[in-house]
Amino acid sequence: ADDLVRSVHRILAHADEVRRLGVRTNADTPEDSARARRFGAEGIGLCRTEHMFLGDRRQLVEKLILAEGDDERQAALDALEPLQKQDFLEIFEAMDGLPVTVRLLDPPLHEFLPDLTELSVRVAVAEAKGHADEGTLRLLTAVRRLHESNPMLGLRGVRLGLVVPGLFAMQVRAIAEAASECREAGGDPRPEIMIPLVGAVQELEAIREESEQVLADVCESHGVDVRALIGTMIEVPRAALTADEIAPSAEFFSFGTNDLTQMTWGFSRDDVEAAFFHAYLDKGIFGVSPFESLDREGVGRLVEIAVEGGRRARPELKLGVCGEHGGDPDSVHFFHAVGLDYVSCSPFRVPVARLEAARAALGGERAGS
Ligand code: PEP
Ligand code: MG
């Protein structure tokens, strides 16, 4: 068994010498970061921050989103910031010296709101008993106002950042504070800030301006030069089509092929188990799910358009992919051919991505394809 492990390490070391594509990981805990590093990841390409707001902290996010005034909102932000700072500090430590792309909050909103039906029942029961429950009634009105039929196409990502004042600024401050502290302790944090669900350059610009101000403030108060790249995900078809307009405002693009596939095909990511989807596979309309292996004619075409437009507008633009396809062997060949700088995938897929990236560089086909 030891011999086998040694052989695998030798093959992967050889692959690393040959490949041109970088290989990063998707990780949002220090444990996953450390694991991915052992598998050879050269940084984090996607640190999702959604899970950091669940559990005990969900109440604070609910308060933040439903706040009735500035004071209430600020209190929730003030409580969340040190928690976020600690989250990032631990990840920067685990990934010392390597880039960490932190994606600002991108949840479907309903995950953070009280259940509408339950609230309605509570109000109805109170009314039936003849005593009005004012607090619950107010909450019900607020939740109703935010209720969405299609949360995945609703108030998510950059939209949430624009609608909830201070939310993204709080996350950026936590990133900058964590990086400063890490640096002061002799570490080498390399934060990158990524804005999700951008469809138009104006959305990115608004967040970028706010983020740069926060970074400058933190640098001044600590007297440390904490630099952070600011970039965007390309996961809305419109962003791919207007990549040349977006690139001047972004230091990097990362393709979110999960959402890009959903929005290009019009297939819900959450319903890929639906019967019609299997019928499509059975009838050979596609051989493999486009959520698993990149659909080159549609989603791939949008990636090509964005790479071309982005690089034309900004030749030094860094390009990566962090959707599930980043760890799919067949798709890795496509990303190599189209000229991305790196792929990012789950920790366990990192070795395969290293190997396939080398095979792509050598001009080889996938084994069995
Ligand atoms: C994506 O959409 O491809 C992506 C990486 O983001 P998420 O899966 O978190 O929406
Ligand atoms: Mg996405």
TrEMBL record:
Binding site for Mg(2+): E235, D259
Domain PEP-utilising enzyme C-terminal: start-end pairs: 7-360
Residue numbers annotated as active site: C322
Domain of life, per lineage: Bacteria
Binding site for substrate: R48, R103, E235, G256, T257, N258, D259
Family as reported in the entry's similarity comment: Belongs to the PEP-utilizing enzyme family.
Name the record gives this protein: Pyruvate, phosphate dikinase
Organism: Geodermatophilus sabuli
Source taxonomy: Bacteria, Bacillati, Actinomycetota, Actinomycetes, Geodermatophilales
UniProt gene name: ppdK
Residues of the full protein shown: 534 to 902 of 902
